Amino acid sequence: MSGRLAVVGLGPGDARYLTPEAQAALGSADALFGYGPYLARVPARAGQARHASDNREEGARAKAALQCAADGASVAIVSGGDPGVFAMAAAVCEAIEAGPAAWRDLELSIVPGVTAMLAVAAKAGAPLGHDFCAISLSDNLKPWEVIEHRLDAAASGGFVIALYNPVSRARPKQLGVALARLARILPASTPVIFGRAIGRPDERINVTTLATADPASADMATLVIVGSPQTRVIERPGRPALVYTPRALGSPAC
Amino acid sequence: MSGRLAVVGLGPGDARYLTPEAQAALGSADALFGYGPYLARVPARAGQARHASDNREEGARAKAALQCAADGASVAIVSGGDPGVFAMAAAVCEAIEAGPAAWRDLELSIVPGVTAMLAVAAKAGAPLGHDFCAISLSDNLKPWEVIEHRLDAAASGGFVIALYNPVSRARPKQLGVALARLARILPASTPVIFGRAIGRPDERINVTTLATADPASADMATLVIVGSPQTRVIERPGRPALVYTPRALGSPAC
Fold this sequence. Notes:
Two copies of one chain form a homodimer. By secondary structure, chain A is of the alpha/beta class. Chain A is built from eight helices and 13 strands. Chain A has helices at 20-27, 36-39, 58-70, 88-98, 101-104, 116-124, 144-156, 174-183; strands spanning 4-9, 31-35, 49-53, 74-79, 107-111, 125-126, 132-136, 160-164, 191-196, 204-209, 222-226, 232-236, 239-244. In chain A, strands 3-2-4-1-5 form a five-stranded parallel sheet, sandwiched between helices. At the A-B interface, α1, α4, β5, α6 and β6 of A face α1, α4, β5, α6 and β6 of B.
């Protein structure tokens, strides 16, 4: 007997971002695994087991969920945003590659979701309207020198840059160092967006520039978008400014 | 009297990817604007006007929708995937910046969706599990030299690369040239994923390598993901291979 495992993206922190596919996967699971605050977003259902774990236990969580599925259960791992972007889907694949042959035989589905950069971009306008990249600033799993090299490559290449995991309690300095490094390549006036807790009551969007961005205003729930030299800001009387990157290179197109 | 405009992401081609927020925005609109095949995915509703246009008329569509909203209507523009990724949100911002002051006064909302690279990645495993970038191969709005420079920067920087708009009838050669260029930097064994029409009956995922990828197998509905030197393939007897990029740089982590 062999079960199945779904790795489910919840989207940003509100049910209005939860796709019908994700809803169905959560509804049909016998057991849910996940970081506590993500699990808390899924309504309780009688007979459905819940296994909460810390956000730094991704490898152990993946293995426990795979073993539960291999024992015959229908299992879902929940992930904030999209499970494929700096989240649980890669951890599950790593565990499958290193684990027993039976884990390769499981029915595995990855259920995509709205990842944080898309939600933050939508609230600000269209900053990701042209070529862009996503970089995690966590140096828990890669050397900081690699991150610096990628920041340089992205800024020099004219990409808009979405920064995931900008800071944590154990890594308070990374965002400041990264912004200072980008400022060596990009104009001081480059728009920078701090987006926090989109879809939650404490949601906040702050539009600033590379010269004035305050790294201390970011926390673990923040995603930062740094514009390219093409990114523009439209002031709107009585409304928040719109930030966007034109589809055409150079001046705004019509 | 002033109306409102929502720019709505439908996600990939199936209702199971449509978020409740997008559903609500479509339901409350007096008028819908969009590329014909996207509009066709929205169930008809009595009293709701529909304005279909060609996919190369984004600027004109944005202006028409803004004017309709400025005349007092509740308007929605539909976009496949996410409207902020190579889609209508930037076109709307461009039109607002260049248009009459009244357009800045409209209530504007961008409704994010699951963009193609997330859906393709989910079907293949977790190829976007580490730093990645998204590049449009269309040189309609930017010089080809810029695209080449960005391909080089992305490959040299170790990013996984999602290629949007890989080919069109008017641009049949771009994908082949781009893959050949990437092959000068990346190993011949680098995994390449062709994902087509995810969520539709003719959905297709093909996993190959940089050495063997056939550009002719891509069409306008295809998204291509080129791995980084870290991207791995897990063979599964009787099931499709899983493609993923480990969270840690170098060897797979546990």
